[in-house]
Amino acid sequence: MTARAERRQRASVGRPAKTPPLVGRDDAISRVTSALTRGSALVTVEGEAGIGKTRLLREALAMLANRASPPDRVLIATCPPVPEPAPLGAVVAGIRRLAPNADTHGLSALGGALRPLFPEWSQDLPPALEPLDDSSAVRHVLFRALSELVDRLRVTILVLEDVHWADTATLEWLLTLCADEPAGERDLSIVVSFRPWDVPAGSLLPRLTARTPAGMSRLRIALQPLDIEQIRQLVASMYATDQVSEQFAGFLYGATDGIPLVVEEYLLLLEDRDDITREDDHWTRRVLTELDVPASVRESVLERVHRLDRDTQRLLEAASILMDPADEPLLATVADLDESAARSGVARALASGLLCERSAGRFTFRHVLDAQAISGAMPVSERRRMHERAARALRRKDHPPMARLAHHFREAGDDDQWCGYAEASAELALESGDDRTAVETLLQVMNAAEHPISRRVRLARQLGQAAFFGAAALGDLAEHVVDVLRRVLDSGEIAQADRGELRLLLGRMLWAIGERSASFEQWESAVPDLGHRPDLAIRAMANMVPPLIPDWPVSRHRHWLDRAGELLDQVATKDRRAFLDMRMTALLLLGEEAGWEALGDLPRSAPTQAGERDLANTRVNAVWAMLAWGRFDGAREQLAVCRRHIEATDSSRLTHLALAVQARLDWYVGNWSGLDASVAELAGREDTDAESKLHARQVRGLLKLAAGGRSAAQRELHEVALEQTRLGVMEPEAVAVPAALARLHLADGDSAQALSNTSPVVHLIARKGVWLWITDIAPVHVDALLGTAKGDDVDDFVAAFAHEVAGRNLPAPAAALVTCQAIVALAAGDPRRAAGLFADAARRWAALPRPYDELLSRERQGRALLAAGERAGALELLVDTQQRLHDLGARWDADRVAHVVRDHGGEVARAWRGGRRGYGDRLSPRELDVVGLVARGMTNRQAAEALFLSPRTVEAHVKSAMRKLGVKSRTALAIAAVEAGFIAADGKDSTGRG
What we know:
By secondary structure, this protein is mostly helical. It folds into 6 domains: 3-19 and 227-285, no CATH class; 26-99 and 153-222, P-loop containing nucleotide triphosphate hydrolases (Rossmann fold, 3-Layer(aba) Sandwich), CATH 3.40.50.300; 295-397, Winged helix-like DNA-binding domain superfamily/Winged helix DNA-binding domain (Arc Repressor Mutant, subunit A); 401-532, Serine Threonine Protein Phosphatase 5, Tetratricopeptide repeat (Alpha Horseshoe), CATH 1.25.40; 713-903, Tetratricopeptide repeat domain (Serine Threonine Protein Phosphatase 5, Tetratricopeptide repeat), CATH 1.25.40.10; 925-979, Arc Repressor Mutant, subunit A, CATH 1.10.10.
């Protein structure tokens, strides 16, 4: 099976339904059905093609049909898009569908006038009427006969769709129906739908829609495009999933302008091109460069264009070439029209609805799809000529737009001009913070032609710097940048100095895409080529200082630390600062107190945006190391400062890294309420970088395991472990994954398999000498060793662990060490000593705080007390522990403790009923954080930014807090929280957090 076929098979369960759901039209449906149930009404529904007029009417009629008193009969007619429609043809076709057989009983002599319309009913209709000489009289009699027929058919709702294509006779008949005084008495409602921009000049339709008929109510519905959230709901319901990101919905909105039918067409097109696939429980989308306009949209637009004169068509073609709003002189130049023809063309294009005035005197397309359809239909030669005229005209401006000039010269086929302007536009994009555009532009230039080696090196350098230092997550673009840098390096034509710099940049990009070991190789290879550039050499060396490569002993990292230190006097302040920041991170990862001193020396702000970005990155790295120490208060403080740095840079990559480290901190300190949703959103976002996504998946796997979702947790953790192996690096936070997998094997009684998970990690940590990282895996490793009867190995491991942390202020490893010593004491047959050690470990975990580990230690303490014969005290402790695990959300562990209690004759306060109980009627720590910010007057978005959450997550916390406190407004929520003592009057929670 091909990869494409496999993807299609995996996605088959998520294929869109044949009839997509109607989204965003509830209010319109309610208004239509209400109008049609209150007596005679004239309902007009207007909107552009694909907006959902027909679907709206079908849904409204279906709702009416399901009511206790449905309408007698509904006559539906659709006007065909033909140049010369048959008089009353749509109405006649509708009547034939409603009454296939003659149903003319009770018609008066007027019925004879219907013989030309219904020749197949000639045997049942009254005799033909005497001929009339006056054509107006003929129409009058015919309209009266048709109205009588509709009345005899007991039609109570007449629906006529697409009346912008209706013939004159049909519109005259509708006007006659509405002008007839007894219309209200007949209880006949008339519903018409139309496209306002396609109503031809001189049409009678405005007469129908502009007035309220006698005896009838009037309702006018103007359907608007869907917004981003409505598009998200549409896609979610079409594919029966809630894993649709706002980014993907935003992409669809930009591509479709919110037209529902076009959204559906684009989804089918994306699926057909394999640009959108479903992987497990989330959707993925490739980075799109160019997407065809759906055929149905293209044909509809071109049909409208072809009805216009040639000058107007040329003006629309010019507007499609320019895309951005343009004034009449520029449109005239590009279209090669004189002033008079351009003015008339603009007027007619505006009247057609294709063009709109975006600002005073500046015109562009109402929908981007219209522009794409028109430019795509132009002959290539003419399109190039128009692009050339556009480029020449724009270049004469006082401040020529570089990006637009690059685009027009490229489309015109002038590669030299294009390359020059593209480089200039990329530089401007970088200066303005739009790094993604800069990278895309430089990639296009690099791949478009075979440049001289000097230009290739220059472009590669610009590309590497833009991609690595840019603020936007690049997605698939990052791998393209790596390919380009490798191609230039492999050319063999570049100078030594250039090779060293490009290797440095390639190493950075390899790190960004997750090829960590390869990045270290590039940096080490770059150093010999950077002898003339101490500023770049010190950066390459600094990158190798953090002890993250499994095969490198600490001594090798220290070698580069010392080598870089020798260059400090030769580099500028900026490069010295970069090295000192990396040194600080390395020292913290090595568990050395000097790292904390270096952290205290970090400046609180920087004068430039780039400086703020560097500070934010440094502090995020520091927080990861601080979590390994167990110094969570310092981590919170650093994250707060980091937020300020990120706000000054607007860096999405750093935002996601901060969200990831915040999630890990929340996991440790027990802020689990809403955490699963937060990490799921971070892992599912299309613009989340690979590193942050992997961190989020780690937390999601740990949460799943604690909540009792064993199979899902094992699958997630296994996939994360495979990705960590592929990356080729070892980080302190990654240790929790093999530890969690080992816990699963221990629960199944498979100690040998558990040991196969823990031993490689423990041996690596011991070999490198980074014992700070052992915390999460040490207790489960001891369990696995004891389960495989390796008592000597246990003693050696615990002794080595104790030796490495002796005399050092490492709170988390110290708590883990006491836990290990307690496990060994219990295995050695000394349950009383073990109980005391477990109690000590629990106190240490609680002091951090790491409540989950505290409760696991208390569970072990209770078991030790049972082994020591202290049943009463043990059961009291275990019952409390079970309840607290239950409240935390650790279902797996709470169930296990409950079984122990019951097996020893105790009673559990409350049986688990499924789902996360959370904090009951108490506010969770995260809800306290949110309510505290709400009390200070922050909006959901502001609170989300302050807490590194999504606005939807904050909204969920606000609603939950309102429900718990029994209030219905944000103001009442703040007052209730203060009165209940959850937060102080100054907006801080009861623990003093603000």
